[in-house]
Specification:
With 50 residues, the chain is mainly beta. It contains 1 helix and 3 strands, in the order E-H-E-E.
């Protein structure tokens, strides 16, 4: 499963990195926006941080 995680600080990545293997996690530095949403259409899940 491909998952995009948005607006994550370096120290928060550890929480998700342990899931690598069963999930394909891609970290995106900037927040998810209406303008960028189409770029992530191949995702099966999104994790937008606020």
């Amino acid at each position: 499963m491909k998952v995009y995680v948005f607006d994550v600080e370096d120290w928060e990545r550890q929480t998700f990195e342990c899931l690598q293997g069963e999930l394909r996690i891609e970290f995106v530095a900037e927040p998810l926006s209406r303008e960028s949403a189409e770029s992530y259409a191949d995702a099966e899940a999104l994790s937008p941080f606020i």
